[in-house]
Specification:
alpha+beta; five-stranded mixed beta sheet
Amino acid sequence: MRRVVSLYLPTWPTDRVRRRTGEPPRHEPLVTVHTIGSRRVIRAACAAAQEVGLYVGMPVAQAQALVPNLHVVDAVPEDDEVSLRELARWAIAYSPVVAPDPPDGLWIDIAGVAHLFGSEEELLADLTGRLTRQGIAARAAVADAPGAAWAVARYGIGGVVPTGRTVDAVATLPIGALRIAADKLTALHRLGIERVGQLAAMPRAPLVRRFGRDVALRLDQALGHTFEVITPLIPKETPTASCAFAEPIGRLEDLKAILLRLSKDLCRQLERRGEGVRRLDLLCQRVDQKSACLRVGTARANRDAAHLAKLFNERLQTIDPGFGIEEIVLVASKVEPLTETQRQVRGLDGDDAGDADLGQLVDRLGARIGMRRVYRLAPVQSLVPERMARRIPALAPPTGAVWPQNLPRPTRLLDPPESVVATALLPDHPPAFFVWRKIRHRVTQADGPERITPEWWNGDKGSAARDYYRVETEQGGRFWIFRDAPAAEGGRWWMHGFFP
């Protein structure tokens, strides 16, 4: 199933100017202008300028009369388009099928890659969040059809349109969401047609006779009734290997054989460049112009052709060949320097043989469940239990940090800690019994307390100190519980972990 993201950048020209020059501040109005005939008019306005009533097409003299401190910059559409292509190159990190959508957007086909980010919602949040932190206003929507995603991103609230709900999502939007010419949009308004659903309800033949085939085409594209091609942007310097077929193919065995051949060709290119693959994309072009893509990553730079080809094996069967695949392209969308290393000395394996095997295991796991879900824990210099570890890539080099050897900690922590009802014989003593998850436990042995104070330098100014106890119950269970304040201050008890 095709899933396409439309990324909308409502103030791209002015955001680009601010990122390049560093001024003016975001709260000051900024516009770009161009000349139409003998008049200078606004071509783009930032959010601050729009808030004070400036709009595209307004004469510059009128705008400066309304806003005396208005910042005016000459529009350079060519630079805007070049920068948009550079942004598209950056967005290849999300999918191999990315294309600019001038003047203010991108297309991103995320079919087959959304799971690498957790879900479509998480992918959109990561994409727009990263752009917003860089000072670029962004809104995005994902739908089955590019036209629907475009309409929801610009005229709706954005977000995820569920599979199969394209018509419902688009029908209530204004007809401006159909990407039709301004003159025909005006004519439709004169007829009282304001919503896409109204236009879709009209008989098709009179609609085409009166407004032309382009209006009907845009309507079908928005409703997902007509396929819309997205031509992916592949930078010229990116290592690629491709194969076109005189007769379309579709058998799984043929796909595997071609993929292995392309992997060998690609690895030969990388060997000449002294590089290895970190991210590999497979693009399959069908005879009906529909495309399918798969993406895998590696834990470290790699150019083992057989290993790279095997990373796709488990997911090749998810590709629908339709009436046949006419071209396959293998793209090394992310590479790193990779130098040759000596693996054997006098018939004995080198010291890093184990690391190589582990690297291939990590790659296979990452291809199956996503590289973000394959990690290891590294120590953090903190005594607060939930801060003592952080996730790092599975094959990241050692950090040099170690956990304290004299502080026994449970093998499993609960995040967040769970409330328990406990009774202690004396205020500062461990509990005599406690109730957790509706089960009563009687304590036979206990050790503590171990007091852990808040880390004020990490923002824990309002937090209370914790008194931790290691307790053992009649059934042999060993638990780590704490009270978040002295008994006299009404402290509560919490379950935080288990010991083996």
